Amino acid sequence: MTKRYDSIVVGGGHNGLVCAAYLARAGRSVLVLERRHVLGGAAVTEELHPGFKYSVCSYVVSLLRPEIIRDLQLPRFGLEILPLECSFTPQLDGPGLVRWPDGDKTRREIAQFSQRDAEIYPEFGREMMKVGRMVKPILEMTPPDPSSLRPGNLLDMLKLGRMFGQLTESERILQAKMFTMSAIDFLDEWFEGDLLKATLGVSGIIGTFQGVRSPGTAYVLLHHYMGEIDGAFRAWGLSKGGTGQISNAIADAARHFGAEIRTEASVDEVMVRGGRVRGVVLEDGTEIQADTVVSGLDPHRTFLKLCNSSDLDAEFLGSIKRFKMRGSSGKVNLALDRFPEFTCRPGDGLHVRGDVAIAPSVDYLERAFDEAKYGDFSQRPFMNVVIPSLVDPSVAPPGKHVMSIFVQYAPYALKEGPENWPQKRQAFGDAVIDTLAEYCPTLKESILHRQVLTPWDLEQKIGLTEGNIFHGELSLEQLFFLRPTPLWSRYKTPIPGLWMCASGTHPGGGIMGAPGANAARRILKTR
Amino acid sequence: MPLPTPFHPRTSKLCESLQFKSWAGYFAVSSYQSHHDPEYFAFRNAAGLLDISPLYKYEVSGVDSAAFLASVATRDVGTLQAGRVTYACFCDSHGKVIDDGTIARIDEQSFRVTTASPTFGWFDRQRRGFDIQLRDVSDTLAALAIQGPNSREALASAADDGIRDLGFFGIMSTRIDGVDVQVSRTGYTGDLGYEVWLRSGDALPVWDALMEAGTPFGLQAAGLDALDVTRIEAGFVLQDVDYFSAPRCLIESRKSSPFEIGLGWTVDLEREPFVGQAALRAEHADGSDWQFVGLEISWEGIEELYAAWGLPPSLPTHACRDAVPLFSGGRQVGQVTSTTWSPILKKYLALATVRTAQSSLGTGLEIEHTVEFERSRVAASVVDRPFFDPDRKRA
Amino acid sequence: MQYDLIIIGGGHNGLTCAALQASRGRKVLVLERRGILGGLAAGEEFHPGYRTVGVLHDTSSVRSSVIDKLGLESHGLKRRSDEAAVFAPQKDGPGLLLFDDPVRACDELAAHSASDADRYVEFRAFLARIGSYLRGILGEIPPPISPRGAGQFLALLRKGWALRSLGRETMYECLRIGPTCVQDWLDEWFETDVLKAALASPALLGTWSGPGSAGTTALALMQICTAGRGIVGGPAALVDALVLACESRGVELRTNAGVVRILTDAGRVQGVELADGSGVEGGLVASSVDPRQTFLDLIRPLDLPGDLGSGIENWRCRGTTAKVNLALDGPLEFSCRPGAVFDTIRVGENLEEIERAFDSVKYRRLPVSPHIDIHMPTVLDPGLAPAGHHVASMLVHFVPHDLEAGWGDTQRADLLEVCLNRLAEVAPECRDRIVGYQVVTPADLERELSLTGGHIHHGEHGLDQLLSFRPQATCARYATPLEGLVLCGSGSHPGGGITCAPGELAASTMS
Asked: From C165, which residue of chain A is nearest by alpha-carbon distance?
């Protein structure tokens, strides 16, 4: 074990793998160390019931940066993204709302509720696309440090200023609004129909511990609007074979470029000698030497678990502790022996071959958040349901289905304490199934197997602190040059040779790959 | 999937070619037979019957309806008499066109507006301070265009009295086969013609009555392909082809003012405020960057191009909506957005947007034309619109 | 009669603007719809023999520069000699008498938490460090969204530099905490619930946000950093002084003169039309009424340039504040401090209680346990009530303007009831002391004081409705795109409350 690596990447999640692939592609010797037996972190596929492949945590893609797909030649390594065409919001006492790929059809759908909304809807889409395009360059940028007077930094700030300067006044106003308003206040400016606002508003809360009426959620709305597949903005897709297939493709690409990947290799500590990183120590005591160590874990794990607190100053540790994680979501995966009919729109047609949102009203969503705010899981939660087997039959036996249910809110910090989650897990699962069964009465009798993941499970199993799927809240004070902490937002850390490359850094969470790629770019530039 | 219009049971049966397109989310016949020529000649020599139900139709009523429409349209609708129809643009506050369409004053306090794209939402946002009712009747009101030199006689023989007295851009109520309808003397073919407005539920008997009464006059069902040729001959702009609705443009340069799409004549500037007035005033004073013009493409030039390859000249069989660049002295000065061969004028015509400097009548330009995969340029000259303007249209 | 400036609305901002402009020799006319001047700052007799000092009662943020420039002290205005201490009563605790001065606050805080007593010193030091920067921002015309010319660019750079010069850490701290919710921010500092509730409370007045809503830290910082010593006699005394200042400068003050229309011609203001049909000509009009009324009610839609109308239609002003005035035959006495009398009291045990009160606004219901901000003006100014008697001026947070059931007599009675229930939990004898009362719902505020949505700040203090966005980017610098129309009310930067700053800043733009 005397081999010495240029870089060790701790954590084989998609960002760690992306970072490793880019480093290897540049000719560095790279080793990826993954604690679990599977790669992918939160982007994994597991067959937990024979014949049924669950995308255990993360379940849809669109944010994955196209340039990463190109640079790493991911299609060659098995990446195939199937588009999700529709979005369906069922109702208990109404027809529900479907947004179709056909604009005229969508207009008629929305017009059932409001003629005005129906006509404004495409305008809204265009406006969001515009803002999305404005924000896109920021995603690929290493955040500048606005307090620094170094020429490089000033240049970056100037670039940022120029970008802002090129916007028209109305675009600037729009951008400022997106960063400060609540999703619903923002949508109120456009629409009057409650169901449409609820449907659109959920994009503002996915993965956050915020309600649709919490200021700042309009930005998250945008974050979800920036997805692009094949150059088309705002398109979501499923990875064929499950989300894990993305991780496998990136891993294969990394190996192709020469990276070495080890699973079931849990890192215990980052070795620091003489004020700089020397490598890592595994749980079994093995030491592996490297010039740089890149952490694909969240900031809490990286600095509070892997690092020795004596290597970091108290101020910095304080700022990491203050970095809000706050997991708020859970996941239920079901194996079904038949298609569960939605009462308000029967059939397994196009309308269910996208995502189905249980978001019948704005108040429903806000009430779900209110319960969580005071430390309970939502009895009537918001859910984002996808039935990948309709689009990708390879994930379930013929005629049978896999249902992936993203559930919010399930606050990590239960008022009884997070350690009580295991006792509440089944009650949480029941609340989810009971709520969904109101919309799909045959659901309960068709369940062959269910997996319930609480934020506690996400922490224990996947290693997401407090079960936060984004490695830290996507709130304004935790974005861009403030992510994860003000003075250390450029992937670098206070320990020379230690880097961050995951969702806890700019531009944040989702299967985007941008933090990994940005970090690799910085690391390569540094030496 | 598009929806059937109220006339679909009839039109679909007649449509032997199975050529439909989606118009505003409805099935609309492109051409009933494999080629649209017979339908075109019905429009120009006899009469054609066209299902225009997919048009967006809104009813505005209430004490402030005239004031409201005057405030959103470029025309001073307040002066429009009951029983009259006018044509106008709707602009945003920057004077850029959102839509164009007709406004009919049914009576003192009720109007019907037709537009090319959904405009209800925009109207709704402008209504503050006006005591009006705004209703979208797109789905409940069916409409037919009966156009062509024989349209008057065909329609008059189907309807109760009064058709023959209806003046150009007039609208009246009458009955066809006992069904209440409104008839306006309007159309999109640039010929003598009428449009019939009726409740969706009455669609089929009215269609049958018109076809029956019209057959002796040569009336036949016509589709959108034939219409497209006639509207280019008439020099009419078409939204999403010749210009784009401002709120749907991602970039400023795609937007147009009424002056830039040849509809400056619909702008009544000096009156009570209306949306876009200040911007339009300024543009009127300073002049516009672009003009909408008619072009006649040199047939000799076309023949020469083909002859150079040893080919006889051949043109697309349909009116063409693919934009092609226009040049003057080697520099691109605009684009052609609609072209068609005019079977009646025997000319190759085009509608184009060009820089103001190149827009005066008689200006010689060059249009791009591709023969054998090779791009060339053909001479074209700016001519007056409409290309085809028979006296019977107004008579 | 020709006026140089016509001011719509005779509230404290309108009066401030009028007096400042008159100081420059302008002929100014103030038009007030009601029979009395002062708006939200006007005192009134709500029960025979008992007077309030205004709908709002906090004068600690009145700009000193206004007092100085107008010489209000020579018109009888007096600053309080002592800082007001806030009393936060508790059901089962000793309560907290909170001073701004950490030395004076020390003992009281130590009774709750020794570490909080220490942290409070640091907390105040941090606030002192950023205070002058924030006061600078709040006391200046907000920067333009699209700076034009070198001067505006430089001004913007200077602002950035001023922030940077607080030090790298402080700068980052400001950027980090600004958008957070006040609960998170205070949780980082303190452990005592009642302390956090008392500190967060004033910033939440009138907002459509709870302590858990993002952006409330910025509001709290602004509020805390501008608070100083109040005015003896409260808002009503301020109005009296402002009226004298106006009169001494020749301002014409007309009451019962409601403006119904701002007259325009070709994009220029020509004057105003009054409710009685008469008109007043004038090329310069300053409006201190809220932005929705100014732009949507007083101006014909098509006289509004550009997209201003649609922007203002999205202006959020959902009122969340009600007022309950109590006439009492003695002071409010709190079970946790028998015998003590306080003039400023905030009833709220902890932030969760306030957050729950806010929840009710979202669902358009009355809060079960409202958060109440009480001022007893009679403690300092016994003349407002018969001898020995008192007035409790209570601002009730989180009472929705658009109550689901609508506002009728039942709802009004319910509102009084929930307030008294909550109050009785800490001051059990309060009910027996009541000799008279007045309930002012947000709907009443809308009707009587002509506040759209019953919003006491003329528009919510949300991050997107402050600074250069208040009330719209195109009119955040007081001048509007409609030539000759200037804004000078709480709907403009730095917003609502009795500060006189919008009136002062607006006046400064009219050279």
From this structure: A147
